[in-house]
# Entry
Amino acid sequence: MDYAVLKLIHVSSVILSISLFILRGIWMLTDSSRLQQRWVRVMPHVIDATLLFSAILLTMSLQQYPGTHGWLSAKIVALLVYIGLGTIAIKRGKTKRARILAWLAAIGVFAYMVGVARTHQALSWLT
Ligand code: HEM
# Structure
């Protein structure tokens, strides 16, 4: 598939991922039952699978891989941290305070990942 198309798919799923995550966080904060809607529970998995799949195809096109290229290793690790913090924020956090902190931290990790993507440096926006 064309590199530009892949990148468009990747960036679109990135935008969908953070938009839905912020929305779910707001529903978590307001104790909204909308958080339990079926599509709200299924979509993050569909979006994240698309994000990861497009990421793998992009790394293959670029021939730069996690493990050999530091910025991609950083992105994989950050993705796992983002997912982990995300489940604490939406599901596992015992207190609302813990969930809010995890939600904010996940958004911070996400911003870090956008910086890594833009700069191809693990130092992200600091470079
Ligand atoms: C939530 C997680 C992620 C976010 C927020 C994210 C964000 C982005 C953004 C914004 C771009 C476009 C950069 C640009 O055109 O300047 C991009 C490109 C890219 N991403 Fe991701 N990404 C994520 C996950 C991943 C993962 C897990 C990998 C693979 C390890 C990956 C690999 C790539 C590659 C190879 C490119 C193309 C870079 C280029 O053409 O310069 N991404 N990503």
